[in-house]
């Protein structure tokens, strides 16, 4: 058992050394090294996420692609004195947590309402008041947060459609929704902006 652990640690050390060297070469403009680095990281992340999301192969592949995109977009944040695989694992963990939260939220949408949870507007006035309150809260948000919420959450457009409509990237649309909803929740709790 101890021998196997040393072997896997050595293997991880070799992977770290090789992938880190390719990544650093890529940061200096070596496109071939950067491509090789991303291919090796994709294999590594596929195994890492596959162990944690067993039974969800489609989600694993989607997360690998999201991780690689996030690493590419945030490559300037990598601290060269730190292990590259630790940085990649941190990104993968955040992406995995986002996926699990989204799955949990989608499942909650399909749960039947209990008698105590019936949501009714007893009159058109209450519905109108609620709509006015939501619109008022949304107006307090900057466009980069408000527009993605309006288009995706209220109008039902996809993230891709919203990105095309607003000129934002798909990632920016997702971030805008997340941050906007977080800001709205804080305002409703009475937290300071």
Please tell me about this protein's structure.
With 193 residues, the protein is mainly α. The chain folds into two domains: 10-107, RNA polymerase sigma factor, region 2, helix turn helix motif (Rna Polymerase Sigma Factor, Chain: A); 134-189, Orthogonal Bundle (Arc Repressor Mutant, subunit A), CATH 1.10.10. The protein is built from eight helices and no strands. The N and C termini lie far apart (53 Å). Residues 35-104 form the RNA polymerase sigma-70 region domain. This is Sigma-70 family RNA polymerase sigma factor. GO terms for molecular function: DNA binding; sigma factor activity.
Radius of gyration equals 22 Å
The top-level CATH class of the largest domain is: Mainly Alpha
The span between the termini is 53 Å
Q: Largest sheet, described in full?
A: none
The helix tally amounts to: 8
Secondary-structure topology with pairs:
Blueprint: H1 2-27, H2 31-52, H3 57-73, H4 84-109, H5 124-139, H6 143-154, H7 159-166, H8 170-189
List keywords for this structure.
Arc Repressor Mutant, subunit A, mainly alpha, elongated, Rna Polymerase Sigma Factor, Chain: A, 8 helices, disordered N terminus, 193 residues, single chain, 76% helix
Would you summarize the structure shown here?
GO terms for molecular function: DNA binding; sigma factor activity. With 193 residues, the protein is mostly helical.
């Amino acid at each position: 058992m101890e021998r196997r652990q040393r072997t896997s640690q050595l293997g991880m050390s070799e992977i770290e050394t090789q992938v880190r060297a390719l990544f650093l070469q890529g940061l200096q403009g070596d496109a071939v090294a950067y491509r090789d680095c991303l291919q090796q990281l994709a294999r590594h992340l596929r195994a890492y996420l596959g162990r944690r999301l067993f039974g969800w192969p489609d989600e694993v592949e989607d997360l690998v692609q999201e991780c690689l995109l996030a690493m590419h977009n945030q490559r300037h944040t990598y601290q060269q004195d730190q292990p590259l695989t630790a940085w990649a694992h941190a990104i993968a963990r955040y992406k995995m947590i986002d996926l699990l939260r989204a799955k949990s939220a989608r499942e909650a949408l399909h749960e039947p309402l209990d008698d105590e949870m019936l949501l009714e507007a007893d009159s058109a006035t209450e519905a109108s008041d609620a709509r006015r309150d939501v619109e008022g809260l949304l107006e307090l948000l900057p466009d980069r947060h408000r527009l993605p919420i309006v288009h995706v959450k209220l109008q039902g457009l996809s993230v891709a459609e919203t990105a095309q409509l607003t000129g934002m990237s798909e990632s920016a649309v997702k971030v805008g929704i997340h941050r906007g909803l977080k800001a709205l929740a804080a305002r409703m709790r009475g937290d300071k902006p």
